[in-house]
Design goal:
By secondary structure, the chain is an alpha+beta fold. It has a 4-stranded mixed β-sheet, with helices on one face. Helix 1 runs parallel beside helix 3. The longest helix has 18 residues.
């Protein structure tokens, strides 16, 4: 691999997005890694204690673990689709979620979308994160 990194793309006259990228351009020669939805459970498939911020952090850690297994790093994640069961809880927890984000992802912000859903397959799960990485 030539070491070229993916880069954020936004129209020049748009305001800078906060906490995500509008688009991410992947350089040639990178392999795309598509991750299944990751919930906030540990290696024994038990939902971590606490609320949405704790589950969000664990789901991010699970994403990063799969990316690492493929030889990548957090900043190789180019796209995330986040499903939450309660948008209000997400909005009320943004500060804690932001702290968790910085602990796991640093200051890297992929293209992202957030969707509120009625429920997730795993009982007790409050968040599920799908991701794409370019490694």
């Amino acid at each position: 691999m030539d070491g070229a990194r993916a880069r954020s793309v936004s129209p020049r006259d748009w305001p800078r997005p906060k906490g995500y990228a509008n688009g991410v351009l992947v350089p040639p020669g990178r392999q795309m890694l598509y991750l299944a939805g990751m919930v906030g459970w540990d290696a024994s498939e038990k939902i971590v204690p606490g609320g949405l911020p704790e589950q969000f952090e664990q789901a991010l850690r699970n994403v990063v673990a799969v990316v690492a297994e493929a030889g990548g790093k957090p900043d190789d994640v180019v796209r995330m689709l986040v499903f939450v069961t309660d948008k209000r809880e997400y909005l009320e927890s943004r500060r804690s979620i932001g702290d968790a984000w910085r602990r796991v992802m640093g200051k890297h912000f992929p293209a992202m979308a957030l969707v509120e859903v009625k429920g997730l397959v795993e009982d007790g799960a409050k968040v599920e994160i799908e991701a794409i990485a370019a490694v």
